[in-house]
Amino acid sequence: MRQPSHLGTLAMAALVWASVGLTQPAHAVNAPDGAPNPTASSVNEDLLFRQAPTIGGRVSIPDAKAANLIQPQGREWRDFRESWLPWIGGLAILGMIAALALFYFTRGRIRLEHSEESGRKLLRFNGFERFTHWMTATCFIVLGLSGLNYIFGKRLLMPLIGPDAFAALSQWAKYAHVYLAWPFMLGVVFMLVVWVRDNIPNRIDVQWIRQGGGFLGDQHPHAERFNAGQKVVFWMVIGFGFAMSATGLVMLFPFAATDINGMQIVQGVHALIGVVFIAAILAHIYIGSLGMEGAYDAMGSGEVDLAWAKVHHDLWVKEQLAKTASGPQLGRGQVPAE
Amino acid sequence: MKAFAVAVLAAVALAVGASFLLGANQKYAYEAFSTSGARVSHPGTNLVGPRWTGDVTGPADGHKATTGS
């Protein structure tokens, strides 16, 4: 009969020692009479966490997620969601509102100068462009309000309207958030397709920024169809829009792309981008309505005064007038200015 | 104004369409995760019945029997 080698014996002994060492609790505690204390020497949470980042069990249903018992990252996510996120969101949004109010009460509304009114209109945004803008904008407002309800609703709204009304409102807000996300995503794609060509940054934008968009100095800086400030808004909407879409899709189809830890991270990213997005769009809404006289007309009726366009987007006006003397951009029988 | 109205209508129509499409591809947990060996309760029921007798079709507490001597 063949004898096992010394090396094999040593290996077996080491394996047995290691397996015994791993299965024994780190500190076996005995009762005062010397008998083992079954509670103190049993497997505990600390010991389990030394072996794996989560504690799970076994389930017989096809939902493997149900086996998850303790996931410590969930506590960090809850802390972030319940303490940091409301503060970050509140500061971002209220800070922007305060900054806009300060600007309004110190600088006032940017009025049209007399020289910016000629009475002759120029088509700035066609019907499809306005449709795209308003579809995305209306969805954004509902998404923003229903999204803020996730963060602030139970703190601000529920004490005012009561738990039953808040529950019903939140249910409908959730439906609106989930389903209006689709036309919003479509709108962001439309915006990219329709306006990307006119939003490529160039040297003219650098000059526009150097002159503070007309705030520094006496002259309006040159600008094409969109000035540098508008280009920043466009790329912000595209960047944040796609980021919100990607993170939102991950949450719309839970656990299809990632595990519970990934879902929590994605939710945090979605919420953080969301509050910054809302704060930035507040500035866009301000400058497009209350902040600048005549700015709303561009997206309202689609037409702007030719003289205004010459002041604020002189290079674009030249380009439009050079294209054709009776093209579609000068509708309703109007004639070009020169 | 016309573009705004059309945009709002389109957004609502797309949202309703999305709700039907997504709803058609969704299953309740009791449908998705039940097997021949493990049952996930239908909402409103449990595995032991309303009187914990194992009879899931039995009458709930407070239900008065219609037959009697």
What can you see in these coordinates?
- The complex is a heterodimer of chains A (338) and B (69).
- Chain A is 63% helix and 3% strand.
- Chain A contains eleven helices and four strands, in the order H-H-E-E-H-E-H-H-H-H-H-H-E-H-H.
- Chain A has helices at residues 6-23, 45-51, 73-107, 127-161, 163-195, 203-210, 228-252, 260-288, 295-300, 306-312, 314-323; strands spanning 55-56, 68-70, 121-123, 303-305.
- In chain A, the strands form two sheets. Chain A has a two-stranded antiparallel ribbon.
- The model of chain A is unreliable at 18-26 and 332-338 (pLDDT under 50).
- Chain B is mainly α and 69 residues long.
- In chain B, 39% of the residues lie in helices and 0% in strands.
- Chain B has helices at 2-24, 29-32.
- The A-B interface holds A 60-63, 66, 127, 130-135, 137-139, 175-176, 178-183, 186, 252, 300, 302 and B 1-4, 6-8, 10-11, 14-19, 22, 29, 32-35, 37-38, 40.
From the N-terminal CA to the C-terminal CA of chain A, the straight-line distance is 111 Å
Helix and strand succession of chain A? Answer: HHEEHEHHHHHHEHH
CATH topology call of the domain at 127-323 in chain A: Fumarate Reductase Cytochrome B subunit
What is the name of the CATH class of the domain at 127-323 in chain A?
Answer: Mainly Alpha
Spatially, the strands of the biggest sheet of chain A line up as: 1-2
Tell me the β content of chain B. under 5%
